[in-house]
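Example record

One chain of 703 residues, shown exactly as stored in the release files.
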Amino acid sequence: MKVQLYAVCLGKEWEWRLTIHSQTDIQYWFEQYAADAGLVLFEPFISVGQGVRLLWRLRGSGKLRKIRNDENKGSHQNDQNQKADGKSVNGLIEERMLEQLQLLANECNIASNETFRFKRIHFEMWQQGVYPRIGLDAGLYNRVVEVCSGRSLLVEEFQQLLVTIGVDLGTGDAWLSYLQLAHLNGDIDVANGLEVIERRDWRRGFRKMTSYTCKRCGSGAERMFWTDCLHCGQACPYCEECLTMGRARFCSLLVIGRSREVAPYVVNTTGSRVGQSGVEVREGVEQQEQLRVYIEPWGLSEAQARASLEGLRYISANGVEDSGEKRAGYGRVGGPVSRVKRGSERVGVEAKPKPKPKPKPKVNNLFPRKFLIWAVTGAGKTEMIFPFIHHTVARGGRVLIATPRKDVVLELQPRIGRAFADYSVVTLYGGSEQRWEQGQITIATTHQLLRFYEAFDLVIIDEIDAFPYHNNPMLAYAAAKVCKPIGTNILLSATPPRAVRQAAKRGRLPHVRVPVRFHRHPLPVPQLVSVPPLRRVVQSQTMPSSLYTKLVASVERGAQVFVFVPNIQLVEPIVNILRAKLGHGMSETVVCVEGTSSKDLARTEKVQLFRNREIRVLVTTTILERGVTVPMSDVFIMDADSQLFDEAALVQMAGRAGRSQDDPAGKVYFTAKEITQSQKEAIRQIKQMNRIARKQGYLLRGK
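Predicted structure tokens for this chain:
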């Protein structure tokens, strides 16, 4: 994609600009400012990446202002000399701009077979029809802006989006005109795929260093791959990290749509807070009553309701603190705002006086704020987020629920759809048919977030400790950029990573704990069972009596038995041993034992058979450590001392037991030769949650 640099003069001030369709800019400025505007276009055309980099350097140099000041100071003294030399003041300015552009192009190592040259365009030339006027359809323009709102799309994705939704912008370069006008109006940003970072490295004698960062996934130099590029005329990098979502090159056109702001939630209170404790109490009570409107419809337990209320207070406080003001200039490279006329079908650009820049509002949080809900497994985290969703969509905001896995997206969709039948719900995952649709509530896998930018007022990230989100900087970056600057991130987890727990403990991360399940019984505490390693059990084809006795007891009491093993290779051998051992001496005639893993194509069917009690014992890996609820379950974790089982995995696997109200005291066994620190920490965390629940009065009497 090629772009053109130009400078525009509005009165006495010059400003550097970039365009993907110069005729649109010419018409835009002359319709707005008539003879007060002047343009100087520079050729040759260069790639998008080169143009964005040069524009940043040109705007940062500040030389245009200096040129104008020098002109004002010397215009009277040197007027006769300039006329004698045959050069006007404007001609000097243009030559200095050309020199500046060529100098910076050389510094940026921009290769070109042609030298830079300029062309000045006057209002009279445009009036005389030297440059034809462009007619744009107002309805199509508004539709383009609407569908791009909150999205971050490569040009191929942008064109695919238009085709999918049935928007026809005509043939040729008409689509470029719509994009450029939206950019000038501040509705869409036109950027390149990679950001250039220039710095001086003191360890290398302050030598200037240049690196690249992907604007979609945030990956740095280690994930850049260089190839010769037709558009750049030289070697050009692209990002390998997010290649599956499209090739983001240095010279790729990136279309970033801007989202509208939602009016903040303001509590209806009266009186002053300063020095009036009675007023403070009354306001707190009034706020709590207003927020309870969003909690009452969902039938939450006491612990769930308290957590949801804390979250609502945090979300509403965010809106009050920011006063609903937009951040002036946040990530914006736009001009004065004007709109396509709405009174006719084929129109140009509406002339408007240039608005005065708004002062930047004073805000404390430059980024979306975060709130952690640390809830035990089986606490009903999904139900707890319903008030947050209700609160946001009722105010016209947009909500995103991001989860690491596709199966969780598919499971949440009908639940969210039934709960919020009056609002549009969109599900996004690899292969989703709703890929280009927009809804008030979006449920998506974390990889799909790469295609959004500041789109949502509320972002709920489920299972922040789960693969692939955990320890993945790309997905963390994507999750951070999809929330509006004045929005809120809600983090959900039963086993937050250590860094998150430390931040909460030290008061740097607002949070609330939900230490009890909905049935108000304590969490089952794992029991330690000493047994030989599984490889020895497989080799000898014998099962330790201590383990066999507990397995038989679980089956005979009617429990569904999870048997977790560290790796896929152990699934089938353990299934064979259990089939042989449990097939004899049991009160039941047949005990169905099956195994499954991430490589099992029939995994979904087997899990359903397990829920239906057609399978009684299921040998599996950590693929089923979360997101699966089976009533009346017991859990056996084999080789619990394996390095593959960390504290979080052990807590999650143990959380499969005791989830139903009919059997809240399911059994959990850590079977291993050694007792590891992970096992100790998992047991400590479970016991700690039980103590907190007992102390806060959540547990049933006597529990």
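Notes: The first helix runs from residue 22 to 33.
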